[in-house]
Each structure stands twice: as C-alpha cells, then as structure tokens.
Automatic annotation (TrEMBL):
Belongs to the DNA mismatch repair MutS family. The gene is mutS. Pfam families: MutS_I, MutS_II, MutS_III, MutS_IV, MutS_V. GO terms for biological process: mismatch repair. ATP binds at G625, P626, N627, M628, A629, G630, K631, S632. CDD domains: ABC_MutS1. This is DNA mismatch repair protein MutS. The keyword Cell inner membrane does not apply. PROSITE patterns: DNA_MISMATCH_REPAIR_2. Residues 699-715 form the DNA mismatch repair proteins mutS family domain. This protein is involved in the repair of mismatches in DNA. It is possible that it carries out the mismatch recognition step. This protein has a weak ATPase activity. Keywords: ATP-binding, DNA damage, DNA repair, DNA-binding, Nucleotide-binding. One of its GO terms (molecular function) is ATP-dependent DNA damage sensor activity. GO terms for cellular component: cytosol.
Length: 878
C-alpha cells in the first residue's frame, strides 16, 4: 500500500506536472522550495544543501530551498547552466486559507516561466548586450526568422532560407531559439550558443498568429505595420505565444514589428564572425574582440547599438555617410564631444526600465531611471544644437517630456529604493494624505501631544492627559475633582465617559478614537498610499512609452557617434571614402585589436598599404611570406577596416577608399570539430566551399593557407583551383595568403591577380620579421628559422636544415621527389646532441672596453677611443 501525498505535496506535484521541463520554485513563506528530482538537480547546480522532508510512496522526499530575497542570483546560475525555472507564488494570504479550515493549503500558481530568452531583471542581464529570443518558422516553401529582446521591446523579422539560418543566428546571438517540434535544429542552435525550445505546430500557425499579434498590439489589423509573409507572421506569432506562456498574461511592452531585408546589411557568415572575432574572441570572452577594442560608448543602450552596427555593417550609402558626417562634426568640435560624453554618462538604461515597468517587475528605481534619462535628454538636446542633420534629428526626439519629468520630480525622492513594497520612495509634500499618515506613523507622540494641548485649552483643565494602555488603548484622563465639569454640557457632547476609578475619570472622543485607529494602521496605510501613487506613476510613464523609447534610441545614436569620434581622435583614425565602386585602397592600414595590444606593451604597430584595386585594378592579391611575419594580421585588418567603414566609423588608416562590400568571407585558421566528426582539413574545406558557392562580385574574401591540411601536392592543387575559381567565377576582391610558392606564377597568367609578400631579413643566421607588405613574391618560407625561434632543440633544427638542403638540391638537379632521397638521407636518423660550443676567446676590442666608464670620458677622449677601437677591429679582422 502506498502512502497518499499530503495536500501541500499534492498541490506541488500538480503544478510541477503542469510545467514539464522546468525546475519548480515553490513559494513557502520567505523561501522557494524544491522537491524530488528538482531538488536533486538544483542542489547540485547551486551547490546548496540537499535535505529531506516527509515521505512519498515510502521514500524520503529530497528537498532544498533558496531565500526569496536572494532568488535572482540563484536564477542566474540556473539559467546559465541550461535550466528553465517555473516560479510558483502564493496567490492568497495564509490567513485566508485558514478560514477554509486548519488543513487548507494556500493557493499557489505559476506566475512566470524563466527561460534564457525571456529575462528582464537587471541582475540577470548583461547591460551592454542584447538578450534575444528568436523563432524560426517554415510555411510551405517559405521560411523566416523573428527575434525580440523583451528587455528593450525591439521586435524584428526577416525572410530566412534554411541555409541562411546559421549566419543569421551568428549575427544576432540569441539566448533561446523557438522551433517547431521535430525541427532538428539542435546542432544549429548549439553552434549559435542558443538554447533550443521546441513548440507544437499550433504555436507556429500563421492564421492564429495574426490574431495573437493584433491582440498584443491592440489593433484590428497588422496593415499599419507593413506587409509580412505567412512565414514571417508564423515566426512572430510563435514569439507572442511563447511570451504569453512564460509571462503568464503579463505581456511585455513590444515596439512595432520591423521587417528587415538582408540586402540592407553586409552578409557575414558564422565562420567569418568567429575568425575575425568581431564581437567575441576565439577564447570565448569579449576581451580580444574588435568590439572590445573600439567600444567607447558610455551608455548601455549605446553599447548595444554599437554591437548591432558591428554585427551588421550597413550597405546603405546614405546611412553610412550620415553616420560618418555626425562623427566628423563631433571630431571637429572636441569641446562639444567632451560635453556630450559627460552628459551621456549620466543617462541610465531607460529601455530596460520601461520593460520592467510594463511587466510589473519594475520598482521605484526604474521610475527614477526614466526621470534621470529624460532630464539628461533635455540637457543633451541643448548641448547639441542643430549643426549636423543626424544629431539634430536625434535631438528633436529628446524633448517634449516636461510634464512627465515634472510629475516624477515632484513625486519621487532623490534616490528611490529598489522595491516598491518597502515604501519610502514618494517625496514629502507630494500627497497630503500620505504626509498625514507618515506623520502619524513617525510622529505619533507629537500628534497626541498637540491634541492634548487642544483639549486642555477647550476644557480649561490643565491636568488633563492623554494616556495609553493595552486594555483601553488611547484615553483622556483627568482627576475626579473635574468630573462634574467634564460630564456636564457642553463638554459631555465631545468627551465620552469610559471609566471612573477612585481618583481619575477617563474619557474618549471620536477624533481620538479615529486617531488611534489611524496610528495603529499608519504603517500599512502609508505603504498602501505609496503603492497607489506608484501605480499611477507607472501608468503615466507607460502612457508615454513610445516617446520615451524614441528618446532612448536617440540617446544611443548620439552615444555611438560620440564614441566613434572619441576613438578617431584618440587613435588617429581617418574618415574612409565609401562609394558604390569596386575600389579597395587602404594606405597605412592597421589592425585595431593588435595595435591596442602592442600599445599596452609599449610597442609600435607597423602599418601597411593595401592598394588592392590600384592601377590596372587587380582584384586578388596572392600573399606569400613566412609564418609569424604578419600575413594573417594583414588579411584580418583589411577585413576589419571594411566592417568599421560600413558601420559608420572612421578607420585605422591614413587613407581609405572602399567600394561597398556586399559580403565578407574569412577562412583564417581552423580547428577540429570533433563533435561532428570533422577534421581540421574537413572544416577548412567546408568553409572554403561555402565561400566559393556564395561569394558575389561585391564580396571581400580573405583566405589563409588553403590546402595545408593534406599532402603537399593535393594541397597545392586545391589552393590553385580555388584561386582560379575566385578569379574566373566569383570575380570578387580577395586577399589569398599561401605557402605554396609555385602559385606565384599565376600572377603573370591570370588577369587581376598580383603577388605581394611580407618582407623579412636574414642577419647572421637569424631571421628578422619586418612586418611590411610589399609587391612581389617571397623567395622561400623560412620555416626552419621559425621552428628555431619556437624553441625546437638545436639538433632537430640542424637536422631539418640538412634535410631541406638535400630536398632543394634534388629538386634543382632533377626534380627528384622526397621518396627518392630516403636512401641517401635517412629521415629517421638519430643524431647525438652536438657538443657544446667552446666559449669564444675575448677580442682585443672587448678587452679594451672592459671596465671602461663612458661617463668619465671627455668629448676628446671619447673621439680618440672611437679611432682606437676602429684600429683594433681592423687588425683583429685582418
């Protein structure tokens, strides 16, 4: 026989079963409790104690819990570890439950499902990054991707064929991806770092989506937002359905949906984003990425906008030129830029404050953020003036909020607390009822003393006192000698007799009784009044949410322009000329990330030119030179210059003329993909195939060491064929680095292909990297010298030189292949380590210099010494 669960445990199990796939935070007083498997999983993930509570079916019930006041930190840990969490709150006061019987269970229900893509709390979000929830929908032959950040309200949608899904997810980096059951998108989602949530086909029904979206926006038709395909409607409808599920009816404030077209931005696939480290370094963090190197924004919204600009550089020349002009305007007026950045630094994150207020998760501090942001917006508008069209348009969106800021100024204290439930956020003098209630709460004795003084004056009884005890509460007491006067008209109409003792007589009055009730209830009443004021202030803010959101976006736009100007001034960057030609001419180009790293070490970066389309307008450079000479840096820096230029920034160069880049492809370096059974060479070939199949004439392609992961002749053949295909079929601009020197012959045979090399020098057996890119081909690879620099044992380096000499000699004398040389030059011969070199004999010059004190020499003596040393050197070398 199995034991029946207690009523509370039965309630827990029912709620858990209604929310499969999520840990259940079950509210019990000041704690969220977890039981059964949820407790075991949560205790391990959170590193908290696992205990027991009661039994179920004869077995102890595992249990753990977290304090309600600290729940957000635990939620963050669970979300980062891949969990979803259902929050079940008490829906009634425990006292109400007891009225139904001593064993009645407090009503509870899930008020929210916390998932990676639906976070809004400040402590759970990265302030400078978006937190996107995406949905991919397929309707017949059509497919689309929608994405939303409910913490800011931005909702966008775009057509997205399945082959474009991975690049689009790489661009937006959503935390969560919604897809229909059985979509098989696990691998794509994992590559993008997104948690995959599969929903039923009903969630992606495009007809139902129209109704959901109309309800969400409170409109009769979506025509006012534009025209959307059935797949686009399905993707947005799935988001709306999921938000209704996770937010339990408290829908977020969403901006009008915007339909994007891929033609408006530079297409960058996932491999290229990874290789170029646009927003994230290969190590996984932000540090070391292009974004980290250039981010000088001072607001959270500005930082998020900057990330979007770098992730999706524009292909709209008018937009690019407007952004550049704004940067130039601020660069020309350093004082204006400095004043702007100082004012912007005081702007809080209004977008996310608005979203929390709309979801009823906000507090007084969010109202304070709106007040501070709008107040600063007016100051920034005054600073800007109307000198630049883009900045002037932004400034126009910053004003017109005087009524709201006046209301918030009047209602809120200077530093509002985090939570409305604690009270204390309404300014003194804002509400008369609240002032009086607070006075009773905080100054009850003073109010009673003033009332006592009034009654003494009214009765003429100087010994009258107002006292308190636990039986009568507050009462008025006089000596028995005054009883006759107090009980006679007209005083008996005001003073109501309550008790007579041997020496005193006690009264009350209606005002005193009311005052007593108000004093006893003053704390709760004060909180109730403040909650009412909070609700009214939130409603006032949400009534102007569209205008506030517009102001927040304008501030972000200004912040990015000011940040770009500060970057250009501080780093000596220049305004690129961007047009619709096929030009790609960079003079004095530098790699922004590498240059930043070198500056920290006190070293200078060697700038290089890249006149890719100069003169006869060759479209492809074939770059040769040894490892460590800087080929990969040169390739990457030119790709990054294109990204920065089309993002609207100035670029790290002395001059740049760039035709619009429609697509950017990079295959630089590779690693095994063991999870999918791909070797390094296979990864390289997959990425190369994607480039050759997609690159159009407007693309910029950078390729590094194609074919190096296989046998020499195989690799050379593949690299050769790839270059020919780029030149003849793709007809794009490309930088192609290789170690196959045989390919340098193609420069004289293929139109538009030109050789370039990274210069090196040899001195006394040492190789010196000049890091200078020049026209021409490298004479050799210097691989053995690089191996010595890497620390290979001297015996190995010497043996490598011996083998290399033999192989080169064989190739010169008869084209002998390496296999034919094995008998004469055993490849596995073990040589004893070379004996240590004898210490060099001290020269006459060294002997003369030993013990010399240069500071003690007169100019004449120093000159005589130079002649003496020259004579000693000549005699010793002779």
């Amino acid at each position: 026989m199995t034991d029946q669960p207690t009523p509370m445990m039965a309630q827990y199990l029912a709620i858990r079963d209604a929310n499969p796939g999520a840990l259940l935070f079950y509210r019990m007083g000041d704690f969220y409790e977890m039981f059964f498997d949820d407790a075991v999983a949560a205790a391990a993930a959170l590193d908290i104690a696992l205990t027991r509570r009661g039994t179920h079916q004869g077995q102890p019930i595992p249990m753990c819990g977290v304090p309600v006041h600290a729940a957000e930190s635990y939620l963050l840990t669970l979300i980062r570890k891949g969990f979803r969490v259902a929050i079940a709150e008490q829906m009634e006061d425990p006292a109400e439950a007891k009225k139904r019987g001593s064993k009645s269970v407090v009503a509870r229900d899930v008020v929210r499902l916390v998932t990676p893509g639906t976070l809004t709390e400040e402590s759970l979000l990265e302030a400078r990054r978006h937190n996107f929830l995406a949905a991919f929908a397929v309707v017949r032959e059509d497919s689309a991707l929608a994405w939303v950040d409910i913490s800011t309200g931005a909702l966008r949608v775009a057509p997205c064929p399945l082959p474009r899904l991975a690049p689009e997810l790489a661009r937006h980096a959503p935390r969560e991806l919604l897809a229909v059951d059985g979509s098989r998108l696990d691998e794509v989602a994992a590559e993008a770092g997104a948690a995959l949530t599969e929903l039923s086909p009903a969630s992606f029904d495009s007809t139902a989506a129209v109704r959901r979206l109309c309800d969400l926006y409170g409109v009769e038709t979506l025509d006012g937002f534009g025209q959307f395909s059935r797949a686009e409607l399905a993707a947005m409808g799935a988001i709306a359905d999921y938000l209704a599920l996770t937010q339990r009816g408290r829908m977020p404030r969403l901006l009008a949906p915007v339909r994007e077209s891929g033609a408006g931005v530079m297409a960058i696939d996932a491999a290229t984003r990874r290789n170029l480290e646009l927003t994230q370094a290969l190590s996984g963090g932000r540090e070391g990425s292009l974004l980290a190197a250039i981010d000088r924004t001072v607001t959270a919204a500005g930082a998020r906008l900057l990330e979007r600009r770098i992730s999706a550089p524009s292909r709209d020349l008018a937009d690019i030129h407007r952004r550049q002009a704004a940067v130039a305007h601020l660069l020309d007026d350093p004082r204006l830029g400095a004043d702007l950045r100082d004012a912007l630094a005081r702007v809080p994150d209004m977008d996310r404050a608005l979203s929390r207020l709309a979801l009823d998760r906000g507090g007084p501090r969010d109202l304070g953020a709106i007040r501070a942001g709008l107040t600063q917006a007016v100051r920034i508008a005054a600073i800007l003036g109307d000198g630049d069209p883009l900045l002037a348009a932004a400034a126009a969106d910053l004003v017109g909020h005087d009524a709201l800021t006046g209301l918030l100024d009047d209602a809120l204290v200077a530093e509002p607390p985090l939570l409305a439930r604690d009270g204390g956020f309404v300014a003194a003098g804002h509400d008369a009822d609240l002032n009086e209630t607070r006075a009773l709460r905080d100054e009850g004795r003073g109010v009673i003393a003033r009332m006592q003084g009034d009654y003494v004056a009214q009765t003429g009884v100087s010994s009258l006192k107002i006292k308190h005890n636990n039986v009568l509460g507050y009462f008025i007491e006089t000596t028995a000698t005054h009883a006759e006067r107090m009980l006679a008209p007209p005083l008996n109409e005001t003073f109501i007799h309550r008790q007579t003792t041997a020496n005193q007589i006690r009264f009350t009055t209606l005002p005193l009784s009311e005052l007593e009730t108000r004093i006893l209830n003053a704390r709760d009443r004060a909180l109730e009044i403040e909650r009412g004021i909070f609700a009214r202030l939130v409603a006032a803010v949400l009534d102007r949410s569209a205008q506030i959101g517009q102001a927040a976006r304008a501030l972000a736009e200004i912040d990015v322009a000011a940040a770009f100007a500060d970057l250009a001034a501080g780093e000596g960057w220049t305004r690129p000329h961007v047009d619709d030609s096929r030009a790609f001419i960079v003079e004095g180009g530098r790699h922004p990330v590498v240059e930043r790293a070198l500056k920290r070490k006190g070293e200078a970066f060697v700038a290089n030119d890249c006149p890719l389309t100069e003169g006869a307008t060759p479209a492809i450079w074939l770059l040769t030179g040894p490892n460590m000479a800087g080929k990969s840096t040169f390739l990457r820096q030119n790709a990054l210059i294109a990204v920065l230029a089309q993002a609207g920034a100035f670029v790290p160069a002395t001059r740049a003329h760039l035709g619009l880049v429609t697509q950017l492809f990079s295959r630089v370096g590779a690693a095994d993909d063991l999870a999918r059974g791909r070797s390094t060479f296979m990864v390289e070939m997959v990425e190369t195939a994607a480039i050759l199949n997609q690159a159009d004439p407007g693309a910029l392609v950078i390729l590094d060491e194609i074919g190096r992961g296989t046998a020499t002749w195989d690799g050379l053949s593949i690299a050769w064929a790839v270059l020919e295909h780029l030149q003849a079929q793709n007809r794009c601009r490309a930088l192609f680095a290789t170690h196959y020197h045989e390919m340098t012959q193609l420069a004289g045979k293929l139109s538009g292909v030109e050789n370039a090399t990274v210069a090196v020098r040899e001195w006394d057996g040492e190789v010196v990297f000049m890091h200078e890119v020049r026209k021409g081909a490298a004479d050799r690879s210097y691989g053995v010298q690089v191996a010595r620099l890497a620390g290979l044992p001297p015996a190995v380096v010497d043996r490598a030189r011996e083998i290399l000499t033999a192989l080169e000699a064989g190739a010169r004398e008869g084209g002998a292949r390496p296999a034919a040389l094995i008998d004469d030059l055993p490849l596995f011969r073990v040589q004893p380590p070379a004996p240590p070199k004898p210490a060099p004999k001290e020269s006459a010059v060294e002997a003369r210099l030993k013990g010399l004190n240069p500071d003690a020499l007169t100019p004449r003596e120093a000159l005589d010494l130079v002649y003496e040393l020259a004579s000693l050197f000549s005699s010793s070398s002779g």
